Amino acid sequence: MGKLAVLTLLGAGLALIGERFVAFRQRFNTLREVEPVEYPNCHLIEEIENGSEDIDILPSGLAFISSGLKYPGMPSFAPDEPGQIFMMDLNEQNPRIQALNISDGFDKASFNPHGISTFIDKDHTVYLYVVNHPHMESTVEIFKFEEKQRSLLHLKTIEHELLKSVNDIVVLGPEQFYATRDHYFTSSFMIILEIFLDLQWTSVLFYSPREVKVVATGFSSANGITISPDKKYIYVADVFAKNIHIMKILDNWDLTQLKVIQLDTFVDNLTVDPDTGDIWAGCHPNAMKLFMYNPEDPPGSEVLRIQNVLSDKPQISVDYANNGSVLQASTVAFVYKRKLLIGTIFHKALYCTL
To answer: Which domains are assigned to the chain?
Structure first.
């Protein structure tokens, strides 16, 4: 009986591993290639060479871009250089990009920016919240944007035991935000095992000076997050599950799920067109090329637009797609008055007029 039990357990274990391997192969489809969908009036932003992972644009047309992310398992063209925040004024006829200076007293050498979100107070002061990974930890940095000096004044570093493996952020008010946690574990081996087993242990957090809590769970890898124009709904991208969760904000800041929009691509960051309410998503059509980077056969880029988000049948369209010959590993797309910015994890950024 002892040997039979061992053999039974071994067989069950091998069957489970086989099933998870097949599921893993299906999720990380290595054969899917994109059909090109490109705008005629696009050009790469030459000053950005090491990524443009997240983008946020103010109602005034000032765009902030995080660059230089170093992330486990991802390529980096400048692994020894600190990250930067760039700015563009999209009201200019030929927008120029500028790296923003950061005030002294902040550890600029270890700056590793990831998701970003802006907030404008009643006095029209602009604040930039940045997910930072100094030494591969996770913090949220608060900066005040000084427009005349075109610089960032560092105000505060937020740390908390729940703010681990943070990916993206959306600010609701002063020191009040939702954030996604894209991995439950922090060690590289356990992250790989977590992905392989599809544990769905990642979450969305709510942070305020008075309360920090988990408000939504059950994601394979919670990634991009944004808010609807009416501030009633939160949209969360689950990159490995290839879907977007539509969630309603409750009075106590908890989130309740309304629906899931299933897609055929790995969804990264999300933005919302403030005029139409459409979701724009930067996506990875072939994740295996991303994790096994080959400059001769690079990962492609894909941008989806989701219209009528809250309806029974949202309309999903591919608004940009490239096989990597122009843009590699797109993460985010943001529309402002017929102008489109597309960012990437480690590559360049694309500027288009629509």
So the answer is: 31-353 (2.120.10.30)
